[in-house]
Design a protein that fits this description.
The complex is a heterotetramer, with two copies of chain A (about 375 residues) and two copies of chain B (about 325 residues).
Chain A (H helix, E strand, L loop, with lengths): L31 H26 L13 H8 L7 E3 L5 H7 L3 H9 L33 H14 L5 E6 L6 H13 L3 E7 L2 E2 L2 E2 H4 L15 E6 L3 H16 L5 E6 L18 H10 L2 H11 L5 H24 L18 H11 L3
Parallel strand pairs in A: 1-2, 2-3, 3-7, 6-7
Antiparallel strand pairs in A: 4-5
Helix pairs in contact in A: 1-2, 1-3, 1-4, 1-10, 1-11, 2-3, 2-8, 4-11, 5-6
Chain B lengths: L6 E4 L1 H15 L3 E5 L15 H5 L4 E3 L4 H13 L3 E5 L10 H8 L2 H4 L9 E6 L15 H4 L5 E3 L4 H13 L4 E6 L8 E4 L11 E4 L4 E5 L2 H15 L4 E5 L2 E3 L3 H11 L2 E8 L5 H11 L9 E5 L16 H12 L2
Parallel strand pairs in B: 2-3, 2-4, 4-5, 5-7, 6-7, 10-11, 10-13, 13-14
Antiparallel strand pairs in B: 1-8, 6-12, 9-11
The chains are: A alpha/beta (about 375), B alpha/beta (about 325).
The complex binds thiamine diphosphate (2 copies) and magnesium ion (2 copies).
Chain lengths: ~375, ~325, ~325, ~375
């Protein structure tokens, strides 16, 4: 495959610059319709994220790790995945989960820990998962999903199923040994896996400079024998294009790719964090006011003649309706029954569990 | 004339912080390392202010790797420092478990004492804070079963400070688990200045004659609640706070059980394989002739900790009362 | 007319190998991964010949990382395969412990059953082979205490084959520990073709009336040696082979203990926090009224396994005899 | 510091070629005396290694991982370390331990598990350690020593003690997550640590190609922001020179260095291995007959006019005497007392241990 991109560059690959102008040399392969869908997904994602935040403030959710600011890198990277493909989200992948197909109702039910959450509220909020959609319910343990993402890809390779495995990791997660061991494994087996490094420049309070001494996260791939690409993670076009390239390579048997999406989170690390302790307001304002992925894409679409006020108004209505509907579904959904606390530890209850269950609930 | 020591009403977070701060002032080899322990002050603020006071060479923000934190702490301890490694949530120690299991715990033994590891590994543990599967676990047994490690769990701020100072001064690695559910919920008087609570000594928190409840950490308070309820029903229950798991205070346990004839062990971990078993088996080996009923264990159910229906997972006073009655009415 | 099944005298290594080989022939989703399992055939030759028969897609030599082995196995299991991951020595599982503890064990639970992990983690464990600190350990408790894992330990080739086939067919992750000390030292008759030994069923290996010895793995044979000696002194001791630790066969234990009134649990791990406690605590909770003496534990000492003076570390028949007499003469 | 070496080369850095001729461009800074001492250490190391092998055959040692073939990379790399410096050996570092100062008697006592072993025979053979000499008794667990090696270096940096930490890892060990996480840590803190990768091209049966997809092990350093050097590990001059360079850099506060020593082991992985299952005899013969580090250095010294038959005869006599003396000391040394099985789990015996000790030995 002729490579339209150069690995290991110092400047992020971009299609659309900060004020929405196309970058001269980069012509999108995306259709107009795809461009608009990307934008629509970002707007919907932000609205769901905001809604989750309200739930936290209302005390109805115990935790939230907001996505705001990272819509482009999450949605762009998930956009070309097929249903059979796998996603290993981290603890902040609302955008990826939405793009892969989870409904606003499911996503908000997850935040509330309700029955409509495909994972039945077992995990803390922001840990989206769905078996049907091959979105693997994540652990909170940073980095340790990476070997399994490679394992899924190894199985795909062995079964010749054509599935691609997409593994989301943060900048912080690249310091965990399991992540790096998994990179090495993927390199040796040329597995169809993509490591989508969401470099939002912080791991809680630790900035990227204190996380690693390498210049970029992308270049880490070289240590394991495959290519890494640095991409403007707030440019949804670039995010989608580079990922499409990596997906095609993976399906063609050309092995793993690491993509570093350079982006920024607007919120604190999570609802439990106080980010004023470690980052300057000015830095946040700079990103939010001049590099926002949604604003940028809207300008781009407008400039390309693909968008106008009427289209925007229609989208906002649709998004509002979708969130309201999702919220209603989530709220209507019950909590899982208390007895289910024993379910799914094993395929069936073991004898000692039956005994415990009788002890606590009076029946098996 | 004796100097008055000021005493303050402290949370466990404050007690833990002050123990580190005072020891760092007294001994320049004491240092801290972990994730977000620097300017951020730790996600629970246990190291708040320490970076400002002691600087980045003694309060070290590390990259996100527990193996790196634990292994680096090990190397620092071998090379003359006394590191206190913070694990952000004890659930996240496990990517570095081998450092604890194979390296930290076994360094002294495999080198026949040539290298020692005076190091503390501390972190919040336990449920009851809506933390879900990975911010709620009680894996103390997985440390207690590793020869070479000491394991300490305080149930209140006073003990937390005194035990942590003991741990920092100990010549061996000490795993120091802080029940996050009572990080701020339980307060007690804490004196200024260094004092130690010895590792390996239990405390009789409430005297009684009818049965012995043995517990530690956050569960101690649930056991006390159960003891209150039993009191209302005319049962006089003794409650022991173990405080140290390795070594544990076998004498205190036997003394009480011999008096009461009934033992109930309460832990927060899932029951199968839990540390409750060690206590139960110890009693069954040493004092069976004093027992007038079964040794009961109250523990979490054998599952992971669900986010939304956690309360059905954890032990509660009801279950302790029931278990105590079961052995009393035997 | 029933077909005759050939039976051979096999070592445990042969039994383990044949279980994998036959299952791989029957089910194309069964595969093997680990260090040196390919052309080398595994360092104990448990996978000898399998690479030649099934090729590199089904007998996969991995880079040197247990986290990669376990995590890759997890992913393969989630994606339709049935991997058998070999850990070269179980001591070396620990760099990958988090994969087992946080991922493999909890995948089903945290996803409410959407993802399952039909996977076997097998490897040699235990001492008695001059393996020193890191080729001798018995860490079964560190697996047994993790909800979501099953734990199986055979004591002879027949059980090894039947249990391993059960483990491979199981819908849940099974940790399968092979006592390397008896990899070749203990032989038994092993039939050709698939048969299963159910996970969770103990076996009364020797009937007796005076006391119950409960053990598993290599220690079972030491317990039998002790039973022989006790026999010479006129004590008729029942010996139970637990075979599965999670789930374990509580009924079999209770039945025997109710009959004999005395229990001795024998494990190879260091005593403090060992799985012996689970059994002891279970008995103390369920059958204390039948006991006529203390429940004894015989285990290794609370230390690491030294290379040169290992025999003072491990349990032996002497210590079992003494412990049994102690409860019998109580 | 002016860098005499280029990092990340494809061809190994060398001073002496296979037939003992000096490589044109590379002039050693080593003195004649140092060159001769390096040679002498290699010969002594081989003799001790051979002696250990005999002990295995005699059934007096339960295990051995032979060093033969790797003398240059181990001895060259340890040659310029000072007493205060630290070594973290792996399971095959006889040469490094010898160079750092352990005596033949101690080394052979270790193989026999005797009291004269500074670690009192606690570890399996080939796991050399000595507290006085800062040789850290290793675990057998491949790779997991690396974070502690960085920790020792971090402490050195904090204490401004000038100590350097030298961490020996095999090619296989670079795949372990803990190794890679430690590389990252060292990069962030610019710690005075040297990662000496003994690339003997096999991890038991797994060759380097199946271990990682990177072209060299040296280049892995780039992923963590420091330099890696590929060196001819059978050229003891090159090994000593490059390590001196890295030590000087570390002491000057210039941070970590990774050195890949390309070498080959002659024996099977260990006394328990059968290497005919995975490697060709011809390959072994090629290395042993044409690239042996000892033969090569002898030719070099001879060519440089520093060595002759008389010198060789004298050396052989000295080596023989040293090994005989060491053997006698090791044999004369008793096994540690049985009761010591309880010692050094903790600084003092804990109550439950005292009880166990009384149970087993009748006294505390
Ligand atoms: C193994 C582990 N250690 C520590 C934590 C606590 N923690 C949660 S998120 C986080 C930072 C993650 O940073 P990054 O990977 O960059 O992802 P981001 O949160 O920025 O999306 C930390 C330290 C954890 N969840 N897991
Ligand atoms: C964590 C771990 N896994 C597996 C083993 C078994 N093992 C011992 S040495 C070895 C190969 C090591 O290869 P390398 O690092 O290249 O060192 P070499 O033996 O070649 O010197 C293996 C797999 C181990 N000791 N530790
Ligand atoms: Mg981040
Ligand atoms: Mg090697």
């Amino acid at each position: 495959m002729a490579a339209p991109f150069k690995p290991f560059t110092d400047t992020p690959i971009g299609y659309v610059d900060n004020d929405g102008s196309p970058v001269a040399k980069m012509k999108p392969t995306l259709s107009d319709d795809q461009l608009k869908r990307l934008y629509g997904l970002m707007v919907l994602c932000r609205a769901i994220d905001d809604r989750g935040y309200i739930m936290v403030r209302q005390g109805r959710a115990g935790f939230l790790a907001q996505t705001a600011g990272q819509e482009a890198s999450q949605i762009g990277s998930a956009f070309f995945l097929e249903k059979r493909d796998w996603i290993f989200p981290s603890h902040r992948e609302l955008g990826a989960a939405l793009t892969k197909g989870m409904t606003p109702g499911q996503l908000l039910a997850h935040v509330l820990g309700k029955d409509l959450d495909p994972a039945k509220g077992r995990n803390m909020p922001s840990h989206y998962g769905d078996g049907e959609l091959h979105i693997v319910s994540p652990s909170s343990t940073v980095g340790n999903k990476t070997p399994a993402a490679v394992g899924v890809a190894m199985a795909a390779h062995i079964k010749k199923s054509g599935e691609v495995s997409m593994c989301y990791i943060g900048d912080g997660a690249t310091s965990e040994g399991d992540t790096l061991a998994a990179f090495n494994l993927a390199g040796v087996f040329k597995s169809p896996v993509i490591f989508a490094v969401q470099n939002n420049q912080y791991a809680i309070s630790i900035d990227a400079k204190h996380q690693t001494a390498s210049r970029t996260f992308a270049e880490k791939a070289a240590a394991f024998g495959f290519d890494g690409y640095l991409v403007d993670g707030n440019d949804v076009v670039a995010c989608a294009e580079i990922t499409k390239f990596a997906i095609d390579r993976a399906r063609a048997g050309e092995g793993p790719t690491l993509i570093e999406f350079l982006t920024y989170r607007y919120g604190p690390h999570s609802s439990a964090d106080d980010d004023s302790r470690y980052r300057k307001k000015e830095e946040l304002e700079l990103w939010r006011n001049t590099r926002d992925p949604i604003t940028r894409m809207k300008k781009y679409l407008t400039r390309q003649g693909l968008w106008d006020d009427a289209a925007e108004a229609k989208l906002q209505d649709e998004v509002k309706a979708a969130v309201e509907k999702g919220l209603a579904e989530a709220e209507a959904s019950p909590l899982p029954a208390p007895e289910t606390v024993f379910d799914h530890v094993y395929a069936t209850l073991l004898p000692h569990q039956i005994e415990e269950k009788i002890e606590i609930f009076g029946h098996a | 004339m004796a100097t008055e020591t000021a005493t303050r009403t402290f949370t466990m977070v404050q007690a833990v912080r002050e123990a580190m701060q005072e020891e760092m002032r007294l001994d320049s080899s004491v240092c801290i390392l972990g994730e977000d322990v620097g300017p951020r002050g730790g996600v629970f603020l246990c190291t708040e202010g320490l970076y400002a006071e002691f600087g980045g060479d003694r309060v070290i923000d590390t990259p996100l790797s527990e193996a790196a934190i634990l292994g680096a702490g090990l190397g620092m301890a071998m090379n003359g420092l006394r590191p206190v490694a913070e694990i952000q949530f004890i659930d996240f120690l496990f990517p570095g478990y081998d450092q604890l299991y194979s390296e930290i715990a076994k360094m002294r033994y495999r080198s026949a004492g040539m290298f020692k590891v005076p190091m503390v590994i501390r972190g919040p543990y336990g449920g009851g804070v809506r933390g879900g599967v990975y911010h709620s676990q009680s894996p103390e047994e997985l440390f207690a079963h590793v020869p070479g490690l000491k394991v300490v769990i305080p149930s209140n701020p006073y003990d937390a400070k005194g035990l942590l100072i003991s741990a920092i001064r100990d010549e061996d690695p000490v795993v120091f688990l802080e029940p996050k559910r009572i990080y701020r919920a339980v307060k007690s008087e804490v004196p200024e200045g260094a004092y130690t609570v010895p590792i390996g000594k239990a405390k009789v928190v409430r005297e009684g004659t009818d049965a012995t409840l043995i517990s530690y950490g956050a569960m101690l308070h649930v056991a006390l609640e159960a003891a209150d309820r039993l009191k209302n029903e005319g049962k006089n229950v003794e409650v022991i706070d173990l405080r140290s798991l390795v070594p544990y205070d076998g004498e205190a346990i036997l003394e009480s059980v011999k008096k009461t004839g009934h033992a109930v062990v309460v832990v927060e971990a899932p029951k199968l394989g839990s540390f409750a078993n060690e206590i139960s088996a110890f009693i069954a080996e040493k004092a069976i002739e004093y027992l007038e009923g079964p040794i009961m264990r109250v523990a979490s159910i054998d599952a992971s900790v669900p986010y939304n229906i956690e309360k059905y997972y954890l032990p509660n006073a009801d279950r302790i009362v029931q278990a105590t009655k079961k052995t009393l009415e035997f």
